[in-house]
Amino acid sequence: MPAANDSFRVDATGADGRHEQWQSMLSSTHLPWATRLSPADAPFEASVKRWWIDDLALVDCDCGPSSGTRQRRQIAMTDGDFFIVLMKKSGNESVTQNDVTVDLSPGDAIGWDSTRPARFTVWQQLSKRSLIIPRSAIEEVGGAPWARSGVRLESTCPATQLLTMYLDSLSTSLPMLSQSALSAARNATLELLIGALRPDTVGVSSWARPAIRDAIDRYIEQHLLDRELSPGSIAQAHGVSVRTVNRVFNATGQTVSDVVRVRRLARARTDLAETSSSVAAIANKWGFSDASHLSRTFKAHYGASPRDFRSAQAAAAN
Fold first, then answer.
1. 0.85 exceeded by the pTM?
2. Three-state secondary structure along the chain?
3. Could you give the CA distance from residue 71 to residue 75 in angstroms, rounded to a whole number?
4. Looking at the domain 211-317, which fold is it?
5. Quick one: three-class SS letters along 174-223?
6. Are 5-197 and 211-317 equal in CATH topology?
């Protein structure tokens, strides 16, 4: 895991130097961008501060008028798939993705997808915050159906307000957190974000979400240690058919087995970070056939083997 926090500032002299420094800083702290200053020869100042919440990045940025694009080249340079929540603190900015342009004012927040072309234009001195989340983390909390490009979080929504207040508080305490507390903060951040994005939250454009899905999600969380957890056992516990259970998940592009697998991987990830249990013991605990099965599945989802992940966590803690 990277350092707990990093600070960056554009301090070069000359238009070319400022532009190169700004593009490099933005690309290294957020995601790769091709940038322009507006106008190119005008005075320009920018600063960035980044905190790591385990594998989530919380990035505060202050900058002057500028613009940026993400096209095929920048997307190809991006290591992984991410969902980003952009939260405006002051100033004005326009963000475009999927041929839709949204003008953001202070208090507004919008989600965007790292795998699709995008562009932004900062019209005046700006202060903003970005929460950069790997898709693998979004899937842990079943958020994939709602973490979509263009979703807007209204500043008047209580769930959005709770998320922003939590991030404000977290940014001041992150450097002092232990590894276990950092993992807990990460999971709380994900849960609060999905709470703000979910369609049953006032302030987010929504469609009907069957109440049975909520009940099934709770049941899955409570029975992840049960090796017999399956569409059949879930259906029996809720007095519905297996077909109904499958249909509820298919409505959001998921399957029961996908959801169970990802949530078990998330628990295995926590055990790897917080316990000294062997990979084999963790695999057995969370329903994987053996250590090799867990290792293959874990690496496919998180991009690192369980042993490499554990080593990185230990190095970060020291």
1. no
2. CCCCEEEEECCCCCHHHHHHHHHHHHHHHCCCCEEEECCCCCCCCEEEEEEEECCEEEEEEEECCEEEEECHHHHHHCCCCEEEEEEEEECCEEEEECCEEEEECCCCEEEEECCCCEEEEECCCEEEEEEEEEHHHHHHCCCCCCCCCCCEECCCCHHHHHHHHHHHHHHHHHHHCCHHHHHHHHHHHHHHHHHHHCCCCCCCCCCCCCHHHHHHHHHHHHCCCCCCCCHHHHHHHHCCCHHHHHHHHHCCCCCHHHHHHHHHHHHHHHHHHHCCCCHHHHHHHCCCCCHHHHHHHHHHHHCCCHHHHHHHHHHHHC
3. 6
4. Arc Repressor Mutant, subunit A (1.10.10)
5. HHHCCHHHHHHHHHHHHHHHHHHHCCCCCCCCCCCCCHHHHHHHHHHHHC
6. no
Q: Which two tokens stand for residue 115?
A: 């795998």
Q: Which residues pair with 62 in a beta bridge?
A: 47, 127
Write out the CATH class of domain 5-197.
Answer: mainly beta
pLDDT tens digit sequence for 208-229: 345 788 888 889 999 999 999 9
CB 135 within 8 A of CB 83: yes
In the chain, what are the domain boundaries? Answer: 5-197, 211-317
* The pLDDT of residue 92 is above 50: yes
